[in-house]
Amino acid sequence: MKQAPTQTNNTDCGMFVCKYMENIVRQNNSNWIERTDWQEKMPKYRAEFAYGLFCAAMK
């Protein structure tokens, strides 16, 4: 996947895996060109992931 988003640091690998899987599961045909800005949106993705875990734990 030449056009898949890639991380630019040593700390976001887990979140990138989660985002890859989320996109693959939710869409049959992932257009990776449209998802090249993951690194700059990573703080938002981390917050959403943490919130989802928190809400699931509270059920």
Automatic annotation (TrEMBL):
The keyword Hydrolase applies. InterPro entries: Papain-like_cys_pep_sf (IPR038765), Peptidase_C48_C (IPR003653). GO terms for molecular function: cysteine-type peptidase activity. Residues 3-47 form the Ubiquitin-like protease family profile domain. Keywords: Hydrolase, Protease. It comes from the Eukaryota. GO terms for biological process: proteolysis. Belongs to the peptidase C48 family. This is Ubiquitin-like protease family profile domain-containing protein. It comes from Dendrobium catenatum. The lineage of its organism: Eukaryota, Viridiplantae, Streptophyta, Embryophyta, Tracheophyta.
